[in-house]
Amino acid sequence: MSHLADVRVGNGPRFSPLNLILDRGRVGSRLRLIILLAAFGLYWFAVTLFGDFPPAIPEQSLADLPVVIAMLLEVFTSLLSPQVLIFVLPVLVAILLSFHLGARYLADLFELESTSIAYRYLLGSVLGLRYPRLTIDAGDVANLDQQNPLLRIGGPGYLKLHLGFAAVFETMEGQPRVYGPSAGHSRYFVQGFERLRDVIDLRDQLREVDEIRTVTKDGIVVHARDVQIVFRAFSSYRRNDDGTYQADPRSMLNLAYGGIADKVGLPRWTETLPTLAVRELKSYVAARTLEEFLALPSDNAQNFHIPRRELTASFHTQERKQRLRDRGLELVWVGVGTWEVRDDQIPSTDLEIAAGQTLTGVARDESRAHRLRSSEHLGRQRQLREFALQREVILELIAAWNEGELSDRYRCYELLIRLRRRLMDLKSRVEAAQRLDPGSFDLPDRLQETLSQLEILTERSPSL
């Protein structure tokens, strides 16, 4: 599949010798070079032949040489004789002067920093010598070689595209031409007077927006923070098996001619989709009330998290997809770090609480109450109480050992006394809770047996 799109209107010029000589491609430049060299050579030969100048080498010196060498030496010395060069050099100077004046004119016309750029352009466009070669390996024209005649003036020249990039040129008639990479073909010849319009980066683009201020359907300000947008140039083709990118000509034209102009007036299509995405996000929020946002799953009543897949799916409606395709774009996904409903909403009067503060306050209280009633929260609180009780018992046993009145040999009896008192206290608490809510608490089966054993052991405690 060729990835060179040529958009033309009307019929091209008819073939004629003059059109062939003035051709803006390689054929015309080679023909002009042949005609120039042939005309100059014929003029030089005619001056030498019909000038009837005396030979530069005497005939006696040539008679001693072989015939072929004598003939070649006589012709060569005759062409370079001063009498012949007097007529040839002014013509050569006129040709060089015409090139110099043409280069100065181009440098002034295109506001070039140096005439060397114009010289390189004239050698390629007029004579087909040393065509300029422009390599596109960046998605911004400003990052290309600014001294390249193909970029500053236009074709003819050779264009080399790295994988993942396409280029849009304009012909002298204003018709666009799209050059895109394809499998095994990333080098093109740009015809004369074709100028670069824009470079299209076919790879996925990532743009980030720190914060977007939006307003809900009921007039509450919602802030979207850390917005990330991934998009690319739309293509109806699939990528090749070798990983090369393909360019959709219609999408390339939409991007080159439908982008947002930057400070210098050039279209920057990479800023088109972020602007559209911000606009769509505002529409997404404007179509919902704050209560609908508060109903979303969240950790608290101020920050809301919408899954990227769900948010991206909301942009992939047929209408929105078609609207992006008309601009040559395709949205991969869009994600928002957090949605924030802040409490700094401005009240209408000094005595009136803002609607945002009221709704977020109520939602926060409801969320807190729901969280306190949840089984997960109750389980965590029960576990924290158990940890606290265990810590309290351990600290009490350590204190009993450090503050014991018995000798070290019998101090374990004091620990058993403290442990028995703790278990009896817990038993009384559980029995009191059972009287308030029967069946809600159960005592371990062997608790009474444990208390009896501890009582027997503590009775054997030696006296102080």
Structure description:
With 464 residues, the protein is an alpha+beta fold. It folds into three domains: 4-200, no CATH class; 205-370, Band 7 domain (Tetrahydropterin Synthase, Chain A, 2-Layer Sandwich); 398-459, no CATH class. 48% of the residues lie in helices and 16% in strands. The chain contains 16 helices and 13 strands. The chain has helices at 17-21, 26-50, 59-63, 67-79, 82-109, 115-127, 149-152, 249-258, 272-286, 290-294, 308-315, 318-325, 355-373, 375-402, 412-436, 447-459; strands at residues 4-6, 133-136, 157-161, 165-170, 176-179, 187-190, 195-201, 205-215, 221-233, 260-261, 267-268, 303-304, 329-340. It has a four-stranded antiparallel sheet with strand order 1-5-4-7. Strands 8-9-13-12 form a four-stranded antiparallel sheet. Helix 2 (26-50) packs antiparallel against helix 5 (82-109), helix 2 (26-50) crosses helix 6 (115-127) and helix 15 (412-436) packs antiparallel against helix 16. It is elongated. It starts with a strand and ends in a 5-residue tail after the last helix. 20% of the residues are buried.
Mean pLDDT: 76
Major β-sheet strand ordering: 1-5-4-7
Could you name the ranges where pLDDT drops below 50 across 5 or more consecutive residues?
1-12, 298-302, 346-353
The DSSP helix count reads 16
SSE sequence, one letter per element = EHHHHHHEHEEEEEEEHEEHHEHHEHHHH
Shape: elongated
